[in-house]
Design goal:
The protein is an alpha/beta fold. The protein has twelve helices and eight strands.
Length: 261
Amino acid sequence: MEKLLKKIFISIPFKMLWEEYLLKVIENKVNPEIALDNFALDNFGIKDFEYVAQRLHEGGLSITLHAPYMELAPGGIDPKIRSVSLGRLHQAFDFAPIFKPFSIVCHSGYDNRCYRDNQDQWLKNSIETWTIFADRAREIGTILMIENVFEETPEILKPIFKSLYSDNFKFCFDVGHAHVFGKSPIDMWIDELSPYLGQLHLHDNKGEIDDHMALGCGEIEFEKLFSILKRKNLKPIITLEAHQESWVLESLQILKRLWPW
């Protein structure tokens, strides 16, 4: 298990890391994907972030970050809403250098219910937004990963990656989101966006709610997923996003059995 833990990241909000899990993460050699959500950005300061980052680095751990996303509209049509959204993302990127993250994950913010009739404008705004943050990521020395959430098909995101793809701008494929919100099979997502793939978010569900359950507790065929990745010689960063500690432990056992590399 120790060998596997060196190769993956496990998602955890900064608040939980600060209040309960920091020592456990260090002792168990867990590389964290730290969620810098709105609570963390509003309730912790630079000294808190520096302390946690220093402890993790001293423990020999690698870090990825997840930027805030709740109610944000990085490609939004209303300029004031979009401005607030960019401001919140800039907060996270301001603190990012402290953690020396391998990647920073951001949600695309697309929702068909909002942007179906304004998709071209949403796409234009999104490319403008992510150009700004791709530049910031480059300055930090990290990779900006754009994650799917409510997109029904990979074609929605593909123009963004075709426009901006580089060594520091890639796709984070959230398999659980694709299963519960998408209308395209997982192999189609990989076929369409594999040239841009940089990271995977792994969790399970039964196709009804975004439960973030343990691998194997829902309907997602992870064995098929890893078979496709191995066949295509794709080796993205792997992050477990199960939302309970027991589910993380269960997922590690499944991942150990399925690990193709």
